[in-house]
Design goal:
It is a single chain. The chain is an alpha+beta fold. It contains five helices and six strands; from the N terminus they run αββααααββββ. The two termini are about 40 Å apart. About 20% of the residues are buried.
Length: about 190
């Protein structure tokens, strides 16, 4: 899908005041400075591919204390499991898949995730990649609007394994332009 959205990753600086000016002027790697007004529905990005190794899968399981036999017990997975081999935990596929397209927009804040679905299993040694598509946006708060993007994680040559929608609040460049369309703020 083609869009007129110009790439913004790594072309601007955040201009921090607590470092040498010459360093502060250097563009921030893997960061976007876009505002709500810059965000265009229909824009897509695709990540690089990543092969999930046994060590990182095991480390993730250890960190989150996921000791389910499908992800931690080779003998169970091979002899009693439905798939005949160990799975990569869905939470790790979610984290790694979204991380592949994370660009660290300095004006956006995660609001939540909807429609998270683990569609197909991912196994140790599988290679994944992610496509993020900007879906829609709407004014929300006095200082920030709400955007929604889909994340599709694929393995191999394009088999869909995970789908979710990420909601983010994004700062307005010009809050006054959206004042008549915002909801009352209730952050309790």
């Amino acid at each position: 899908m083609e869009t007129s959205f110009a790439p913004t990753v790594g072309i601007d600086s955040t201009l921090p005041k607590d470092m040498p000016a010459a360093h502060a002027a250097i563009p921030v790697w893997n960061s976007e400075n876009w505002f709500y007004e810059d965000w265009q529905p229909g824009h897509c990005i695709r990540s690089l591919r990543r092969t999930i190794a046994e060590g990182e899968s095991h480390l993730f399981n250890t960190l989150v204390i996921d000791i389910h036999p499908y992800v931690q017990d080779q003998m169970f997975a091979e002899t009693e499991g439905v798939f005949g081999k160990r799975l990569v935990a869905g939470a790790f596929v979610f984290s790694a898949g979204l991380g592949l397209v994370a660009t660290n927009c300095v004006n956006a804040f995660s609001y939540g995730y909807d429609k998270l679905r683990f569609i197909k299993p991912v196994f140790i040694g599988d290679t994944i990649y992610t496509v993020r598509t900007n879906l829609d946006k709407k004014p929300k708060y006095e200082e920030m609007g709400l955007i929604r993007a889909s994340y599709e994680v694929f393995k191999g040559a394009g088999e869909l394994v995970l789908y979710c929608e990420h909601l983010q609040t994004v700062k307005y460049r010009n809050p006054a332009a959206h004042a008549d369309r915002t909801e009352p703020e209730n952050r309790a």
